[in-house]
Write a structure and sequence with these properties.
The protein contains three helices and four strands, in the order αββααββ. A four-stranded antiparallel sheet has the order 1-2-4-3, covered by helices on one side. The protein is α+β, with helices and mostly antiparallel strands.
């Protein structure tokens, strides 16, 4: 992704890229933060067998949005949720 300070633009581009990879991604504003949602996981079987895939994804998102926002996973498919969801909180 191109460096930008526009968090919604970065989220939109990431959603497009991840959807092209099969994640059916979207984002939405939620009060003072954003949600980045992956409605499908094309690597779910592998991720279930090896949690490092999911940890790597979280770390990549954290690096991508640093230092302008903090990222935490709030829902996780391999833990029984219907989707993976990340809470993106802008840093003041």
């Amino acid at each position: 992704l191109s460096p930008t300070d526009d968090l919604p633009a970065k989220l939109e581009k990431l959603a497009v890229l991840r959807s092209e990879e099969g994640y059916m991604a979207q984002w939405q504003a939620e009060g003072e933060h954003y949600l980045f949602i992956e409605n499908h996981c094309p690597i779910c079987a592998a991720a279930t067998a090896c949690q490092n895939f999911c940890q790597s994804e979280l770390q990549q998102f954290q690096q991508l949005f640093s230092p302008q926002a903090e990222v935490e996973r709030s829902e996780h498919i391999v833990e029984g949720a219907r989707r993976c969801c990340y809470k993106i909180t802008p840093v003041a």
